[in-house]
Structure formats: C-alpha cells, structure tokens
Amino acid sequence: MSEGRAADEAVDRSRQRTISRSALGRHRRFAEVSPELGRLDEQAVDDAMRADPDGTLGLLAELTGATDARLRELARSLAGRLVLDVARRGPVHPRGTGTIASRPYRPDAGDLDVDASTEAITEAIASDAAVDPERLRVRQWVRPATALCLLVDRSGSMGGVALATSAVAAAAVAFRAPHDYSVLGFSRDVVAVKSQGTDKPAERVVDGVLALRGHGTTDLAGALWAAARQLERSRAGRKITVLLSDCRATEPGDVHAAAADLDELVIVAPAGDADAAAELAASVGAPMATVDGPASVVPALLQVLS
Predict the structure, then answer these.
(1) What is the pLDDT of residues 73-100, one digit of tens each?
(2) What is the pLDDT of residue 13?
(3) Half-sphere exposure of 97 (CA within 13 A, CB side)
(4) Which has the closest alpha carbon to 14: 59, 55, 64?
(5) Sheet harboring 111-112: ordered strands across?
(6) CATH of 3-17+145-305, one of 3.40.630.30, 3.30.70.660, 3.40.50.410, 3.90.650.10
(7) Strand, coil or helix: 17
(8) What burial letters (b/e) apply to 201-217, b meaning 16+ CB within 10 Å?
(9) What's this model's pTM, rounded to 2 decimal places?
C-alpha cells in the first residue's frame, strides 16, 4: 500500500470514531462555543482563545471528531485556521552550518573574491577600461537547505490539547520548510500525513493531523527508521527529524540504533511527561524541549532547531 493511500485510509478510520455531544459536554467551555446542535459560535471561540488558547484549541481539536456532522465540519475549518495562525508566530528557522562560496558579482552580495576576479581586473587595467562586472565574483556565506521530518506520536490516547499541539507542530514545520518536509503519525504503524517530496497545502496537512486519533502501542524504533527513509529522498544539506513524543516505546526495536541512523534528531516532549524523552535525548545527544500545549510549540521548535 502506498504511503498516500495509507494516510487517506487512516484518516477515514479516525473520523469514524466520533464523539457524542454529551461526551463533549465535559469540556468547561463547550456550551459557550456550541450552544446548540450544528452550531459553532466564533465570537465565543475568540473570547475563549484570549482567555485560554491551549484549552480552546484542544476543545476545537476534539470537536473535529464530533458525532454532529455540521459541528464537526465547522470545527475542522475554524481549528485549521487558528492552528495555522498560531504556527505562524515567531521565527523558526533551522540553522545550517554554512560554508563560504564564490558567487557571481551582485552589489552588496558579499566581499569581492579577489582570486577569482584577478584576471578580469588585470585585463581591465591593461586596456584602461572599466571592469566587466559579469566577470567578477564575490565570496558569500551560504547556508545549506534544510529538510524536516516531523514524527507525531499518536499511540495511546491522543485528543484535545495533545492533538492540537501536534497540528500546530505540523503547521510550523510546513511554514519553516515548505518545499522539503514530511509529517508522519505513528503508533504501532506509521501513517504518512505528508510524504517527503510531495506537494500538499499546509491546510490539508493540518486537517490530516486533526483527523488522527490515538490508539495502539508505540513502535518508536519503527517511526525513526521511517523518518530516515523519508529524508533519504531529500537532497538538502541538512536533514532533521523532529520527534514529538513522550518517547516511551512499548514495541520491541532498537531505538538507539534507529536514532543513530538519522542525520539529526531533536525531541519535543510533553512538559508533564518528559522523563523517557530526556533519557533518550541524553543518550543520543539530541536537543530537547518541552511543551505544555499548542501555544508553546513554536518557541520549543525555535529552541531545538537553533
């Protein structure tokens, strides 16, 4: 089965596991944002976002699985827009090591590459003519392109704030490496929400993540191997796997060997459940940050990618 087909079928299965209105009523703000069947009050959502952005995004993520079809679609649309807005905040630019390269001359593009430009300068002096700028070179600091693969842990119970956190992480990765990234959801199996080298709008990627629901055991080693295979498709100078997980593996597999096969691994773990993640990060030398909800995703990514 192709990765794209697997992703589509997983999304369909996730959406079949709907949540009743009575179950959604346990959320403190549910009655405010959805006062009646098939209705979502956007003003109430705006008010709730100002008071509690993490909890509100978590509620909207839950509503994308509502039994009420109209409410489900309204929540999917609004949650997608808000997730993208949160993910745009703050600069998250993966920093490559960089090299000095000789480039064609452009004003203010860099320092003159004297060695590469000597012949043009000498000939101009000898003929008492102006130097041809087309024959000049400059030395310029060039950073390599960066490819990202985001691994989203969807094992166990994944919904609410955890689901919204994953969606914001996917959107942030999409904005920061728009031409070369992948998003994989994993439990016992791996689902490609977006594969490396395929074109997919950020809105659809976010929608695909919001459609995921938690279930099953955690094959952490398998997920890391899958990330390596995704990044093999890229020709970027820097390839980074971003692991969003508590890092507790419940399936057999050599996690350390899989991590060692990656060019770079960074870990983002839930703030209240980060012990296993910290142990893995220390053992493989991976930068790590923690998040306590969707609003802290972008600063966490800035920390580990820098």
Answers:
(1) 998 889 888 888 888 876 655 555 555 6
(2) 42
(3) 7
(4) 64
(5) 99-104, 137-142, 111-112
(6) 3.40.50.410
(7) coil
(8) ebeebbbbbbbbbbeee
(9) 0.77
